[in-house]
């Protein structure tokens, strides 16, 4: 029996799992592509040949895959649902408050308890003092898992027992980030149009601000992701804000506007590239 079974070993999941292993946690890992587990196995993780074996191996199940929908899809098999009883599920996937509430109801029906955690940093920051996690769900579950979160970052925010609180806060912050991105790229467009050096524009912001990577990408005409986020992520984020607005009946014009812009960037051929590539579309260079 291990402490934690970790499901999902993409870029973020692999980094979270590695950080836990390096903190001397006993992990069982599972991923649909087994090759992604090799580095973790070399570090001491136990490999589960099946998802059923992974669920059975630990009292705590951490899940870091694309979204809540895929989580429920893979856990809904008849061979898996009976194994969920008495498990603590820590959902680290992206989701809305409504999805969190639906997931909480679903896990409860199968005898499991849910804790939701939104990861607010890129994989490279996991394990560092400024790595931020937003967490919501039953307090006794948070207390049970608290030490593991502190292995993962120095900025751990428990937002209370309301299961939708962490996703709500994540979306609120996400909205600000996307609007900042739009303003930042428009500002770069102004500077380029008026012959103002983008290096001077970047200096107007605090060290480490997103302005550094955005202006560097535009200046070099190199939009490979390096310290930022791909335009695909921006599109998914805008879609999450749209979905939430519809769920609760609030105005969606701002996320609709952002979504349409980001979709134009992807349609122009910049899928997988830094979100700074929005500049190319705004300049009509696509």
Topology overview:
Blueprint: E1 4-7, H1 11-22, E2 27-30, H2 38-42, E3 46-47, H3 51-57, E4 60-63, H4 68-75, E5 88-91, H5 97-109, E6 113-119, E7 132-136, H6 139-152, E8 155-158, H7 165-193, H8 198-202, H9 210-220, H10 231-248, H11 253-270, H12 278-282
Parallel strand pairs: 1-2, 1-4, 2-3, 4-5, 5-6, 7-8
Antiparallel strand pairs: 6-7
Helix pairs in contact: 7-9, 7-10, 10-11
Kindly describe this structure.
The chain has 286 residues and is of the alpha/beta class. The protein folds into 2 domains: 4-162, NAD(P)-binding Rossmann-like Domain (Rossmann fold, 3-Layer(aba) Sandwich); 168-282, N-(1-d-carboxylethyl)-l-norvaline Dehydrogenase, domain 2. The protein has 12 helices and 8 strands. Strands 3-2-1-4-5-6-7-8 form an 8-stranded mixed β-sheet, sandwiched between helices. Strand 2, helix 2 and strand 3 (46-47) form a beta-alpha-beta unit. The N and C termini lie far apart (54 Å).
Question: Top keywords for this entry?
Answer:
single chain; 286 residues; Rossmann fold; N-(1-d-carboxylethyl)-l-norvaline Dehydrogenase, domain 2; 8 strands
In short:
The protein is of the alpha/beta class and 286 residues long. The chain is built from twelve helices and eight strands. The mean pLDDT is 95.
The number of strands is 8
What form results from the Cα inertia axes?
globular
Number of helices: 12
CATH topology of the largest domain: Rossmann fold
What about the largest sheet?
Answer: 8 strands, mixed
Strand order of the largest sheet: 3-2-1-4-5-6-7-8
Radius of gyration: 20 Å
Q: Structural class, from secondary structure content? A: alpha/beta
**Helix share of residues?**
40-55%
Calculate the terminal CA-CA distance, rounded to whole Å.
Answer: 54 Å
- The multimeric state of the shown protein is single chain
β-strand percent reads 5-15%
CATH fourth-tier homologous superfamily of the largest domain: NAD(P)-binding Rossmann-like Domain
CATH-derived architecture of the largest domain: 3-Layer(aba) Sandwich
The level 1 CATH classification of the largest domain is Alpha Beta
Low-pLDDT stretches are none
Number of domains: 2
Mean pLDDT score: 95
